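DUF4149 domain-containing protein
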Amino acid sequence: MKIATKYPIIPASVFIWIGFVGAISFMEAWLKFQVAELSLPLGLKIGKLVFHALNKVEWALALIIMIQIYRTAGKIIRWSNLYLLIPISILVIQTLVLLPILDIRADAVIENKIVPISHAHIYFVGMEVVKVAALFIYGLNYHKK
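Tokens:
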């Protein structure tokens, strides 16, 4: 079965986005802490660096997708793009709310301060799962257009 699409930049960018989130959030983030010699402060410093880089890559991919949709369809806000608007909304929340909260917590741990219990990390991971699922559905459904 041959699957062809008129605008391959969109699904390619969607699946590259999934790959980045999968590799960083679901593999690198917890794997680095399996290294016995890696201290928690150093792991958190690495994590901050990597997640801020990932955030920039995600925004670049989201912008590439949105620009291409606008160029080809004229509108981004439409029901057919619902499964794209979900991850973009999540990305906004992660960028403006969760990453700053997690940065403050990481900085406090790095400085050997006691931090109160927070569910921000759980929310972030949950949003990553939803983001990847929505992107996957969007990417698969894009071929049906």
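The mean pLDDT is 91.
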